[in-house]
Here is the input.
Amino acid sequence: MDSFTVKAYGTVAQDIPLEEMHIQRREVLPKDVEIEILYCGVCHTDLHKSRNDWGGSTYPVVPGHEIVGRVTKVGKEALKYRIGDLVAVGCLVDSCRTCPNCQKDLEQYCLNGFTVTYGGTDKHLGGSTYGGYAEKIVVDEDFVLKVPENVDAAAIAPVLCAGITVWSPLRHWKVGEGSKVAIIGLGGLGHMGIKLAKGLGAEVTLFSRSAEKAADATRLGADHVVISTSDTDMKSVAGKFDLIIDTVPYDHDITPYMHTLATDGTLVLVGYFGDFEKKFSTLPLYMRRSVVGSVIGGIAETQELLDFCGKTGIVSDIEMIDIQNVNEAFERMEKGDVRYRFVIDMKSLKN
Here is the structure.
């Protein structure tokens, strides 16, 4: 298969910092779209995959699944986009498209395994897929998203992962006017959860261990802040919430939060998946409460979110960086030293 070379930033081993390299992209197939990448968000997944924290990383790793750019070429059968269109690519670049979940626009739950934007199996060139820390990317048009021209193109990038991760449960559980929603944790996912839940008309509460975050939570749209280490605060919201979105990315005790769910309320885990060393009590479930997990969203759902952002002006709070500073950004991200997402200005890759 014909391919071309682009400049990228990645790593060849888990203990080596990201550095400039060259990778191959396929020449456009009939239904492909070639995109010049303008901005790419920096996600915790980028750090973990680069360092093989979860195991299974295949090197070289070129991270990046929060991609915004402009179309530079389209395949002869591609009809959805034109050269110059502002577009995006999120966490998925393919799926089987035939299983029951794909048929219901739930590609993120593809029963035959979806193709992730980086670190997946490249069906065309072989080897691994490469992400958005690069000059260009080539993607099937069905997995390309339209970005409204009226939004901040850089600040919309984290919506492709952090945004859709909280949007999907908000929509699935039909959050709207009158809904009582709580967000656990004020980070990249949490700040988007507050903005989007408020944008849908919900009464929004932030659970936080720190009172210092109250002012920022209010600025983002939270109606209330509950300090989760305060017994008084926690008792004051017992049985209140229709939906809780838990964005905490590490092992923690969810039992206290379960007591704050209303009957038929649901706590959705989006930040941590793994074994809970701190066993949670099933006692609160007798009130017909549920604990579930959720990951990202399908293509149709992500497009719905981008359209919603275009209508409401909701985008991420970001700090722009050059690609040459991405290793420093990884270190700061581990310490929580970002409000609330890093975004790479990809023109810095041309320097």
Notes: Residues 162-293 form a domain with the Rossmann fold fold (CATH 3.40.50.720). The radius of gyration is 20 Å. The first strand starts at residue 3 and ends at 10.
